[in-house]
Structure prediction request, 180 residues.
Amino acid sequence: MKTTAPRLTMIALAVTLNIVLGNLALFLRLPIYLDTVGTIFAATVLGPVAGIITGLCSALFTGVTTDLFSLYFAPVQLCVGFMSGVLLHNKKASWSLPLKALLITLPGTLVASLITVLLFGGITSSGSSLLVQVIHGLGVNQTLSVFLVQIGTDYLDKLLAVSLVISAVKALPRYRQIGS
Prediction:
């Protein structure tokens, strides 16, 4: 990846988008996260490496300022950045949007579920922890409860994020110059 001022500016904008939307979702205790919209945007416009850099910077900044849990979930941002870049960068809409969102979601969900169970016993700062406890209270084991909620909330989150990013990219007539 070439390092140019427009590329660095785009990555900084994407990091800011992740931080603002992620903190908004955290503050409102939403069952979705919104902290990967910028990562998906950077990966779509600039490629997988930019998505990975955006995700890592976002997780580090958020982790040391507002939500310590973000540091632990940095590997999820890396998965999302990589998968988004592979599936969305310089690609025509050959696959359906829901399928792309699912393929972006799955690796990160597996990683996030393991982190949530192994490090936090199924409880994190997001609103989805309430859903995990309800399912666990119904007799489902903790790991399966986390995965079931995680796949649902992650997929909804990524479907929304990918939809927003694709709409934004279509509205940007000259973004290819930055991504080249």
User: Anything to note?
Assistant: The first helix runs from residue 5 to 27. The chain has a mean pLDDT of 90.
